[in-house]
Amino acid sequence: MRGRVGLFNCRMQDNTVQIVAPEEFGVTAVNLLESVLVERPNALVVLPTGNTPLPLYAELRRRKVGAMRVAMLDDYYDAASLTTNSYHWLRREVLDSLNIGDERVLRIPTAPGNLPAACAEYESALARAGGCDLIFLGLGPNGHIGFNEPGSAVDSRTRMVTLSEATADANADYWQGAYRPRAAVTMGMGTILEARRVCLLVRGRNKSTALRAALEGPEAPDVPASFLRRARELTVIADRACLK
Ligand code: GLP
């Protein structure tokens, strides 16, 4: 089912919410990406980690969509000292299969040292690359986006953040408990909102409260996802379980 946001009682202008059956999830997301690649074959696309985008990555591998450049949304602090990090996760799930080499990947900086300067340089690198054409995002159960936890400002930039206990636990589950991150670096909400298009991916019943808060609640830092309504163009792809 495709339609304007009538399903949700929120203030959005040209934004679209697509409620899809689980088996349509990846296809719908890749169709959106391909529509961007028709306009810009080497579009700069942000790909997130997490369980939510796995159908998108399966469909990307199946269709061998791989001309784009990729920028990272977030990673754990000091990621280079870890094998359990977002970069390796993306390599395993999508980058290697699509033959996207490091020359086409903008890696978010996480090294100890002068991290604020490195984060500012990351923002400059995004700008030099022409800005983000499309940012795919997952939704944290607490309304977080990337690692923008509740309390993140609408104009926040790429920076180091401390993770909430819930987010640290959720991330430990990705690594079967072998690593539990406490700090990370994330694109800020302001950085994300500069993208030409944002696509929020939402799957599963445990996201329904966060999705409603994001689309219907007040735009406020306690639900960073609520700021996505300010995106230049926002598409929400959600499976039916989120409506429960
Ligand atoms: C993580 C990631 C986010 C992701 C979110 C939801 O903490 N930093 O980018 O979107 O949590 O993850 P999942 O899709 O596994 O529910």
Outline the fold blueprint.
Elements: E1 2-4, E2 16-20, H1 25-39, E3 44-47, H2 54-63, E4 69-72, E5 74-76, H3 86-95, E6 105-106, H4 115-128, E7 134-137, E8 159-162, H5 165-174, E9 183-186, H6 189-193, E10 198-202, H7 208-216, E11 234-239
Helix pairs in contact: 1-2
The chain binds 2-amino-2-deoxy-6-O-phosphono-alpha-D-glucopyranose.
Residues 48-52, 73-74, 138, 140, 146-147, 167, 170-171 line the site of 2-amino-2-deoxy-6-O-phosphono-alpha-D-glucopyranose.
Helix and strand element order: EEHEHEEHEHEEHEHEHE
Bound molecules: 2-amino-2-deoxy-6-O-phosphono-alpha-D-glucopyranose
Unreliable segments of 5+ consecutive residues: 1-7
Distance between the termini: 16 Å
Q: Under CATH, the topology is which?
A: Rossmann fold
Radius of gyration: 17 Å
- DSSP strand tally: 11
Order of strands, widest sheet: 1-2-11-10-7-3-4-6
Output the structural class. alpha/beta
Helical amount: 25-40%
Largest sheet: 8 strands, mixed
Give the overall shape. Answer: globular
Level-1 CATH class name: Alpha Beta
* Average pLDDT: 92
Number of helices: 7
What amount of the residues lies in strands? Answer: 15-25%
> How many separate structural domains?
1
Give the CATH architecture: 3-Layer(aba) Sandwich
